[in-house]
Design goal:
Serine Threonine Protein Phosphatase 5, Tetratricopeptide repeat; 5-stranded parallel β-sheet; 2 domains; 11 helices
Length: about 220
């Protein structure tokens, strides 16, 4: 149980938000929902939350839809240590990289499996509890040990800590791509492969992976 976990969901799709709430509360999280960007921002700034989940495009603004990237930017300025997860139906490498630069710790692609949201929140709290001053290379070594023991949550924690430590190192993204592929999540594997390639265009292991992952994603064979 994660009794210390307080989650704020900012989403104008009520049915989605309530399903996330149900799954997260089953795991011991305390969950609050706000349907608009303005209400969500005000509450996130006013109250104490461990994680904020926000959609990429939100209705309810007098000036029109407000982007999740704006929310991330404002929250980063107000509460730089608050973990924010971006939810989006059509993620692009540019969008996710921009979100990470603004301070988002992760993203989930719609349609979203609520259990994936729960696992991400688990990872965030564990990462916070195990935060160290290890270098990227040391974190990669810890991730390798965790992978050998098939401790996949711990491995993802160390790899994402390595990303936060140095976003220009390709290895953490590439290792996450391999991890998600072994677990059968080709969509996530492709996402992290693209981020590995963006971080290290000359990183050869990434370049050799693209064709194979695209074939798996489309169900075709070369």
């Amino acid at each position: 149980m994660n009794e210390q976990g307080n989650i704020l969901i900012i989403d104008d799709k009520k049915s989605d938000a309530e399903e996330f709430e149900r799954v997260l509360e089953e795991e011991g999280y305390e969950v609050e929902i706000e349907p608009t960007a303005e209400a969500g921002l005000a509450r996130a700034k006013r109250e104490s939350f461990d994680v904020v989940l926000t959609g990429l495009h939100l209705s309810g603004s007098d000036e029109g839809p407000k982007k999740g990237l704006d929310i991330i930017s404002e929250l980063q300025a107000a509460k730089p240590f608050l973990a924010v997860i971006l939810m989006t139906a059509k993620p692009t490498t540019q969008t996710t990289i921009e979100a990470m630069k603004l301070g988002a710790v992760d993203f989930v692609e719609k349609p979203i499996d609520p259990r994936k949201v729960q696992l991400l929140c688990d990872e965030i709290l564990q990462r916070r509890a195990t935060m160290t001053n290890d270098t990227v290379d040391e974190l990669l070594q810890l991730a390798e040990l965790a992978l050998e023991q098939r401790a996949f949550v711990e491995a993802r924690v160390y790899l994402k800590m390595a990303m936060l430590r140095d976003g220009n190192r390709a290895e953490p993204y590439y290792w996450l791509s391999e991890l998600y592929e072994t677990q059968g999540d080709i969509r996530e594997a492709l996402h992290y492969y693209c981020r590995a390639l963006d971080a290290g265009p000359t990183f050869q292991p990434s370049r050799k992976t693209l064709g194979r992952l695209k074939q798996l994603a489309t169900g075709t064979r070369g």
